[in-house]
User: Fold this.
Amino acid sequence: MLRLKISMSLDGFVAGPDQSVDDPLGIGGMRLHEWVFPLAVWRAMHGEQGGEVNESTRVVEESLANIGATVMGRNMFGGHPGPWDARKPWNGWWGRNPPFHHPVFVLTHHSRKPLELEGGTTFTFVTDGIETALDQARRAARGKDVSLAGGANATQQYLAAGLVDEMEISLVPTLLGGGERLFDGVGTDLRGLELVRTVATPQVTHLKFARR
Amino acid sequence: MLRLKISMSLDGFVAGPDQSVDDPLGIGGMRLHEWVFPLAVWRAMHGEQGGEVNESTRVVEESLANIGATVMGRNMFGGHPGPWDARKPWNGWWGRNPPFHHPVFVLTHHSRKPLELEGGTTFTFVTDGIETALDQARRAARGKDVSLAGGANATQQYLAAGLVDEMEISLVPTLLGGGERLFDGVGTDLRGLELVRTVATPQVTHLKFARR
Assistant:
């Protein structure tokens, strides 16, 4: 099962305008994620202690459970557009020990050898499209689910192809006014995905979609 | 207090593409309102008996309570763009006895005499902008609140001007893929409006924003 989790603004953006290496979420984009940082479950994922437990906790826990592999777009892996810099390769935003701890498949137009980091995270670069990346991730997940980690463009492709089986949208009651829209080019068809659960907090509304 | 209530799709549209006299909500736009039609409270408003009571009932009841006047855009009043047809004037979508039963102020660039219909609904056409229309509505409301009924363009103007005091967005878990976006041109500032209540049903998520 391919499961998307993503935070979206009230005006439909998953990243703000003017994304760059220095500002990977775009202007204001960090506001989409402020609900998650205080949570104990998120802090633990990043090796920190303490934190809150609230209604969002079970949503985050559920999104992390039973995931055996991740697919993501080049823009989510980040760094720079175009061919990889062989002398000074971009190795992701997450440092030496990324919080995935399983195989990650990165959609890109530019081939590159796999990258093995600490804690069980490997990045494999897939140049022949979303279906191949998903096939590889499914095999690597060994019966567990595959997480679709974004960004907007990769997500739009998987949604438009009807390949997303579950979608947890964390709707943040703020406006970004520009940037990357989650549903641009997806059309009018949710491909059988229906709203199956809503978890509401003052900071965020979690909307879970699945096939019934 | 100026109170907006509006239904919006998951991709941010409050009307579908290709709005016309025959299809005033645009393609697919009716799907934004399907949650309200079965409700007893909505049927009673339109002179019909029976219907459902569910979690949305109190949201609709609240949105109707203590309203003394309504402002709306020309596109919401509808009919056709440009000057009014003096021989065959457009009198709104709602028939002889519209469901407002109070003074309604219509934003337009084309002057026209007030229109008095049955049941206490009068339409006054205001040609000198959103603030004048709101002033007139406030006076007509005699201490009660003013409802902002749409459409998208009028709503965007009031939101951008910071004149909306309360906003009930009924988010429908469907995609329209095009049409009129609620927040186009509004920018990044909700002008002090914060999420204060969420009411969730399988058909719709009601997001209430107010100033704290």
